[in-house]
Amino acid sequence: ELKVEQNPLFLSMQEGKNYTIYCNYSTTSDRLYWYRQDPGKSLESLFVLLSNGAVKQEGRLMASLDTKARLSTLHITAAVHDLSATYFCAPRQTGTASKLTFGTGTRLQVTL
Amino acid sequence: DTGVSQNPRHKITKRGQNVTFRCDPISEHNRLYWYRQTLGQGPEFLTYFQNEAQLEKSRLLSDRFSAERPKGSFSTLEIQRTEQGDSAMYLCASSLTSGLLSYNEQFFGPGTRLTVL
Questions:
Q1: Over the stretch B86-98, which tens digit does the pLDDT of each residue have?
Q2: What is the pLDDT of residues A47-76, one digit of tens each?
Q3: Residue B28: left (phi > 0), alpha (psi -120 to 50), or beta?
Q4: CB of A78 within 8 A of CB of A14?
Q5: Could you give phi then psi for residue B19, rounded to 5 degrees?
Q6: Is the dihedral of CA B59, A86, A100, B19 positive or negative?
Q7: Which candidate in A96, A110, B88, B94 could, as Cys together with B25 as Cys, close a disulfide (CB 3.0–4.6 Å)?
């Protein structure tokens, strides 16, 4: 059974600072998704990482995937308050058609 | 609005009652998923459909839960004899799968928040 661990679980950072969220998973995955969730809202798709070494960037967020290490990272550059939300990684286990297994999430709070 | 829609958005019920939720996926999306999310946790997979066929069910989906997608479009999730432990956000997602190179990216609806008293 695929297990997903994110750390940190909670991150408070000042505007303008950089930080990285880590996502470790326990078994082989052929793709990995990152989602954002605002309080009381649904999930918004951020990135789809399809292969080893994949890197995607959108604004101040950059996601990467290392399938050999079973690790994905979400790097935040020069954080702004609007990035405050909970971020989830969700690898898809190899051999399963569609089932995503979500981590517990990282709650990011960006302070002024 | 062409996103995934869910109804109702909120449902409060008494223990032992039956409830039914509806999900309308993005049109032309052939896959539809149900997840459950409790406070402070990530979503947990419940079940998914490809067109009208239910292809996988989680062990979380007890006999009291049933899902249908009769015409391959909208789906319903019914919970019979609700228990307080069923209180959660029920999320629906849809995706388009069209070959090996498909991203199969799942787009989520706003969710139905269930409170069982």
A1: 999 999 999 988 7
A2: 999 888 889 999 999 999 999 999 999 999
A3: left
A4: no
A5: -135, 150
A6: positive
A7: B94
